[in-house]
Design brief:
With 432 residues, this protein is α+β, with helices and mostly antiparallel strands. The chain is built from 14 helices and 19 strands. The strands form five sheets. Strands 2, 3, 15, 16, 17 and 18 form a six-stranded antiparallel beta sheet that branches. Helix 3 (69-85) crosses helix 12. The chain starts with a helix and ends with a strand.
Length: 432
């Protein structure tokens, strides 16, 4: 039975690889996408004028990515193993020892929309990083609902994610649960989606979609710059309106910037529920944590279940802190390493070792970096204006409390994920 299961998984992996290389079906139904958006933004009582309906074409690839069901299950297992590890007393002691002081405060919320990013290859899913306030979930839900059947073979219908039909309700319940973990049995009356100059952000339409969902379920929802906050007498307000809860999209994870001081004070005083918050980032998404999650011996000693240790050993690339004491070894091994700053986000400040110059390497030694074993991304064949080309692929699981809310892919070219690749962008996953 074990051999049959393994053979079935190998067959699925082979089929997925062939489809990703040679299937050029356009699965995005543009009419369905536009209809979905009109429906979401034109519901009675929501109050969005037609001119506010965002244009989303530049976010999306026309092409789906094929992923074996066994790989999805493995990635979900990795997420659950990491979140189990994050609750171990010794793990918490270690990650909080290098975290900013504000992370010592634990008001209760677990963190809305965690993102776990993977590369897929011959060795199975490999975790690249963990993100708080992972962008794109609402956009990917819209994308997934606008998929048509892949023409060859006919059985590949858009089985994007078993959770898709429940996504809106699950997202709402997530915010409700985050609120209740800090406030008990009640509901927030007013929530603010917060980022710096939000209307100028690339993912601003994502904020609009989240706003629509929450408004539709009875929570007044504003999209704000943190400079609009005022805090006095234990009350956080914006434009004279009391703010109960903040959906935090800032990449200043510890709220250290001067223009975030008002939100920081209100958060520290427990005057507002913030999700994701500084503690969530410190416990789950600080890149230094990967040095622990890739250290199987330490995880065993700390009490993580053997099955989970073995899963993380296979799925988390070996990661180490960069130290000048190891400069000779790091330079020698650089071609198989990827360097990332502790506090960075997205592609900012990251370097493939085989692209390094001595000058950049010196800057890395002076900064706060990790070195992670290089894991090549998967590939997806693309047909752009009758020209065949290849894009790189990574896979993201959007999760809450260890459970998957949605799965999605990103197709790109270059060193790191971006949205500048013709034919690239967010892509749905067709599970086979």
């Amino acid at each position: 039975m074990h051999d049959e299961t393994r053979n079935s998984q190998q067959t699925a992996s082979t089929n997925a690889a062939l489809l990703n290389r040679h299937c050029y079906c356009i699965t995005l139904d543009q009419d369905a996408l536009n209809s979905n958006l009109r429906h979401q933004f034109s519901n009675a009582g929501i109050g969005f004028p037609a001119t506010a309906i965002p244009e989303l074409d530049h976010f999306f690839s026309d092409t789906a990515v094929f992923v074996p069901e066994s790989d999805i299950l493995t990635m979900e297992g990795v997420v659950q193993a990491i979140e189990k590890a994050s609750k171990l007393p010794s793990y918490l002691t270690q990650v909080l020892s290098w975290a900013p002081d504000i992370a010592q405060f634990d008001p209760g919320p677990l963190g809305a929309f965690m993102g776990y990013d993977f590369h897929l290859g011959p060795e199975g899913p490999q975790l690249i990083e963990v993100n708080t306030n992972a962008g794109g979930a609402f956009l990917n839900a819209v994308l997934a609902r606008a998929q048509s059947r892949c023409c060859q073979p006919p059985q590949h219908a858009p089985a994007i994610s078993p959770a898709l039909d429940r996504f809106d309700d699950a997202a709402f319940q997530m915010f409700k649960h985050e609120w209740q973990r800090q406030r008990g049995e009640s509901m927030p009356q007013r929530l603010a989606i917060v980022d710096n100059a939000p209307e100028s952000q690339f993912l601003f339409p994502e904020f609009q979609l989240a706003q629509r969902l929450l408004l539709d379920r009875g929570i007044e929802t504003l999209v704000l710059d943190p400079a609009e906050f005022e805090y006095a007498n234990g009350e956080l307000t914006a434009g004279g309106k009391h703010i109960d809860m903040v959906y935090n999209r800032l990449v200043d994870f510890a709220l250290e910037a001067p223009n975030h001081a008002t939100l920081r004070r209100a958060y520290r005083d427990g005057a507002v529920v913030v999700t994701p918050n500084p503690r969530t980032h410190a416990v789950l998404a600080d890149k230094r944590n990967l040095t622990l999650l890739s250290d199987s011996q330490t995880l065993r000693e700390w009490g993580l279940d053997t099955k989970d240790v073995e899963l993380l050993e296979r799925a988390v690339p070996k990661t180490r802190l960069v130290s000048r004491n190891d400069a000779t070894e790091l330079w020698r091994d650089r071609r198989r390493l990827f360097f990332k700053p502790f506090s960075g986000h997205g592609s900012k400040g990251v370097y493939r070792g085989d692209k390094l110059t001595q000058r950049v390497f010196e800057n890395i030694l002076e900064g706060d970096y990790i070195a992670q074993d290089l894991v090549p991304p998967g590939e997806r064949g693309l047909k752009i204006d009758d020209t065949i080309t290849t894009g790189k692929v990574d896979i993201r699981l959007y999760t809450y409390n260890g459970k998957t809310l949605l799965t999605a892919a990103r197709i790109y070219k270059g060193q790191t994920t971006n949205f500048r690749t013709p034919g690239g962008g967010f892509a749905p996953i067709f599970q086979i």
